[in-house]
Input
Amino acid sequence: MAEYAESLRKLIEEFKKLPGIGPKSAQRLAFHILEVSAEEVKKLAASMLEAKKTIRHCSVCFNLTDKDPCEICADKSRETKVITVVEEPKDLIAIERTGFRGLYHVLGGAISPLDGLGPENLRIKELLKRITSKVSEVVLALNPSTEGEATAIYLHKLLQPLGVKITRIAYGLPVGADMDYADPMTLTRALEGRREVNV
Ligand code: ZN
Output
Protein backbone atom coordinates (compact mmCIF):
# COMPACT_ATOMS: atom_id res chain seq x y z
CA MET A 1 0.00 0.00 0.00
CA ALA A 2 1.43 3.35 -1.01
CA GLU A 3 1.96 5.92 1.72
CA TYR A 4 2.64 9.63 1.66
CA ALA A 5 6.28 10.63 1.50
CA GLU A 6 7.99 10.91 4.87
CA SER A 7 7.96 14.71 5.22
CA LEU A 8 4.29 14.95 4.23
CA ARG A 9 3.41 12.20 6.66
CA LYS A 10 5.22 14.05 9.42
CA LEU A 11 3.40 17.29 8.62
CA ILE A 12 0.02 15.52 8.79
CA GLU A 13 1.02 13.94 12.11
CA GLU A 14 1.90 17.36 13.56
CA PHE A 15 -1.42 18.86 12.49
CA LYS A 16 -3.26 15.92 14.04
CA LYS A 17 -1.86 16.94 17.43
CA LEU A 18 -3.73 20.27 17.27
CA PRO A 19 -7.02 20.54 19.19
CA GLY A 20 -10.11 19.81 17.12
CA ILE A 21 -8.10 18.54 14.16
CA GLY A 22 -8.93 15.00 13.05
CA PRO A 23 -7.07 12.98 10.39
CA LYS A 24 -9.08 14.49 7.51
CA SER A 25 -8.56 18.09 8.58
CA ALA A 26 -4.88 17.37 9.20
CA GLN A 27 -4.55 16.12 5.65
CA ARG A 28 -6.39 19.13 4.27
CA LEU A 29 -4.13 21.53 6.20
CA ALA A 30 -0.99 19.72 5.05
CA PHE A 31 -2.11 19.89 1.41
CA HIS A 32 -2.87 23.56 1.87
CA ILE A 33 0.67 24.16 3.10
CA LEU A 34 2.00 22.49 -0.04
CA GLU A 35 -0.23 24.69 -2.21
CA VAL A 36 0.78 28.09 -0.83
CA SER A 37 4.07 29.88 -1.46
CA ALA A 38 7.16 29.27 0.67
CA GLU A 39 6.82 32.92 1.73
CA GLU A 40 3.36 32.28 3.19
CA VAL A 41 4.57 29.21 5.04
CA LYS A 42 7.45 31.22 6.48
CA LYS A 43 5.04 33.90 7.69
CA LEU A 44 2.87 31.27 9.37
CA ALA A 45 5.83 29.59 11.09
CA ALA A 46 7.27 32.95 12.14
CA SER A 47 3.97 34.14 13.66
CA MET A 48 3.68 30.91 15.64
CA LEU A 49 7.20 31.30 17.02
CA GLU A 50 6.70 35.00 17.68
CA ALA A 51 3.48 34.41 19.66
CA LYS A 52 5.12 31.59 21.58
CA LYS A 53 8.06 33.80 22.44
CA THR A 54 6.24 37.00 23.42
CA ILE A 55 2.91 35.93 24.92
CA ARG A 56 2.70 35.01 28.58
CA HIS A 57 0.25 35.26 31.46
CA CYS A 58 -0.19 38.58 33.22
CA SER A 59 1.16 38.13 36.75
CA VAL A 60 -1.90 39.92 38.18
CA CYS A 61 -4.97 38.70 36.27
CA PHE A 62 -3.47 35.82 34.22
CA ASN A 63 -4.78 37.15 30.95
CA LEU A 64 -2.56 36.42 27.94
CA THR A 65 -0.34 39.41 27.23
CA ASP A 66 2.92 40.62 25.74
CA LYS A 67 3.33 43.09 28.62
CA ASP A 68 3.33 42.42 32.34
CA PRO A 69 1.12 43.66 33.93
CA CYS A 70 -1.24 43.47 30.98
CA GLU A 71 -2.86 46.55 29.41
CA ILE A 72 -6.06 46.06 31.39
CA CYS A 73 -4.33 45.78 34.79
CA ALA A 74 -2.12 48.75 33.94
CA ASP A 75 -5.05 50.93 32.81
CA LYS A 76 -5.56 53.59 35.50
CA SER A 77 -8.95 54.63 34.12
CA ARG A 78 -10.52 51.28 35.00
CA GLU A 79 -12.93 50.63 37.84
CA THR A 80 -10.65 48.68 40.15
CA LYS A 81 -13.36 47.87 42.70
CA VAL A 82 -14.96 45.24 40.50
CA ILE A 83 -13.19 42.03 39.50
CA THR A 84 -14.87 39.76 36.98
CA VAL A 85 -13.78 36.13 37.22
CA VAL A 86 -13.68 34.16 33.97
CA GLU A 87 -12.47 30.70 33.02
CA GLU A 88 -10.33 31.48 29.98
CA PRO A 89 -8.78 34.50 28.24
CA LYS A 90 -11.34 34.12 25.45
CA ASP A 91 -14.12 34.76 27.98
CA LEU A 92 -12.34 37.93 29.08
CA ILE A 93 -12.36 39.12 25.48
CA ALA A 94 -16.09 38.35 25.25
CA ILE A 95 -16.87 40.40 28.39
CA GLU A 96 -14.54 43.17 27.22
CA ARG A 97 -16.64 43.48 24.05
CA THR A 98 -19.64 44.45 26.17
CA GLY A 99 -17.83 47.62 27.28
CA PHE A 100 -17.19 46.41 30.85
CA ARG A 101 -14.43 48.58 32.32
CA GLY A 102 -13.48 46.79 35.51
CA LEU A 103 -10.72 44.30 36.18
CA TYR A 104 -10.56 40.56 35.54
CA HIS A 105 -9.20 37.35 36.94
CA VAL A 106 -8.64 34.40 34.62
CA LEU A 107 -8.90 31.08 36.45
CA GLY A 108 -7.41 28.94 33.70
CA GLY A 109 -10.43 26.62 33.48
CA ALA A 110 -13.17 25.30 35.71
CA ILE A 111 -13.34 22.53 38.29
CA SER A 112 -13.78 19.32 36.33
CA PRO A 113 -12.95 16.07 38.14
CA LEU A 114 -13.48 14.10 34.91
CA ASP A 115 -10.65 16.04 33.26
CA GLY A 116 -8.52 15.81 36.39
CA LEU A 117 -8.96 19.54 37.05
CA GLY A 118 -9.31 20.34 40.73
CA PRO A 119 -9.36 23.72 42.52
CA GLU A 120 -5.59 23.43 43.03
CA ASN A 121 -5.11 23.53 39.25
CA LEU A 122 -6.91 26.86 38.95
CA ARG A 123 -5.66 30.31 39.95
CA ILE A 124 -7.90 30.50 42.98
CA LYS A 125 -5.26 31.30 45.60
CA GLU A 126 -4.13 34.17 43.41
CA LEU A 127 -7.71 35.44 43.20
CA LEU A 128 -8.17 35.37 46.98
CA LYS A 129 -4.96 37.37 47.40
CA ARG A 130 -6.44 40.11 45.22
CA ILE A 131 -9.53 40.54 47.41
CA THR A 132 -8.54 43.47 49.61
CA SER A 133 -10.71 46.18 51.14
CA LYS A 134 -10.36 48.04 47.85
CA VAL A 135 -12.45 45.43 46.05
CA SER A 136 -16.18 45.76 46.56
CA GLU A 137 -17.56 43.22 44.10
CA VAL A 138 -16.53 39.96 42.50
CA VAL A 139 -18.56 39.04 39.42
CA LEU A 140 -18.55 35.34 38.61
CA ALA A 141 -18.79 35.13 34.83
CA LEU A 142 -18.28 31.40 34.43
CA ASN A 143 -19.66 29.26 31.66
CA PRO A 144 -23.20 27.96 32.15
CA SER A 145 -22.04 24.35 32.42
CA THR A 146 -21.86 21.84 35.29
CA GLU A 147 -18.14 22.65 35.64
CA GLY A 148 -18.84 26.40 35.70
CA GLU A 149 -21.57 25.81 38.26
CA ALA A 150 -19.32 23.70 40.50
CA THR A 151 -16.60 26.36 40.29
CA ALA A 152 -19.03 29.16 41.16
CA ILE A 153 -20.24 27.29 44.26
CA TYR A 154 -16.67 26.57 45.34
CA LEU A 155 -15.55 30.19 44.84
CA HIS A 156 -18.59 31.51 46.64
CA LYS A 157 -17.68 29.47 49.71
CA LEU A 158 -14.15 30.89 49.76
CA LEU A 159 -15.09 34.48 48.93
CA GLN A 160 -18.02 34.91 51.29
CA PRO A 161 -15.95 35.13 54.50
CA LEU A 162 -13.92 37.93 52.90
CA GLY A 163 -16.92 40.23 53.08
CA VAL A 164 -17.01 41.09 49.40
CA LYS A 165 -20.22 41.27 47.37
CA ILE A 166 -20.41 38.24 45.08
CA THR A 167 -22.57 38.34 41.97
CA ARG A 168 -23.16 35.98 39.08
CA ILE A 169 -24.06 37.14 35.63
CA ALA A 170 -27.58 36.28 34.56
CA TYR A 171 -27.54 34.07 31.53
CA GLY A 172 -29.68 34.48 28.51
CA LEU A 173 -27.59 31.55 27.33
CA PRO A 174 -28.54 27.93 27.02
CA VAL A 175 -26.86 25.67 29.58
CA GLY A 176 -23.82 24.06 28.03
CA ALA A 177 -23.16 26.99 25.68
CA ASP A 178 -19.74 28.57 25.48
CA MET A 179 -19.65 32.10 26.75
CA ASP A 180 -17.40 33.44 24.04
CA TYR A 181 -19.97 32.46 21.40
CA ALA A 182 -22.56 34.73 22.95
CA ASP A 183 -23.17 37.98 21.10
CA PRO A 184 -22.19 41.17 22.97
CA MET A 185 -25.87 42.14 23.36
CA THR A 186 -26.72 38.92 25.23
CA LEU A 187 -23.60 39.26 27.37
CA THR A 188 -24.29 42.91 28.14
CA ARG A 189 -27.75 41.96 29.34
CA ALA A 190 -26.25 39.10 31.35
CA LEU A 191 -23.84 41.50 33.04
CA GLU A 192 -26.51 44.10 33.76
CA GLY A 193 -28.75 41.41 35.21
CA ARG A 194 -26.11 40.00 37.54
CA ARG A 195 -27.43 38.98 40.91
CA GLU A 196 -25.91 38.70 44.31
CA VAL A 197 -25.17 35.08 45.20
CA ASN A 198 -26.70 33.75 48.37
CA VAL A 199 -26.11 30.03 48.47
ZN1 ZN B 1 -3.58 41.63 33.86
Summary: The pocket of zinc ion is lined by residues 58, 60-61, 63, 69-70, 72-73 (CB under 6 Å). The first strand starts at residue 56 and ends at 57.
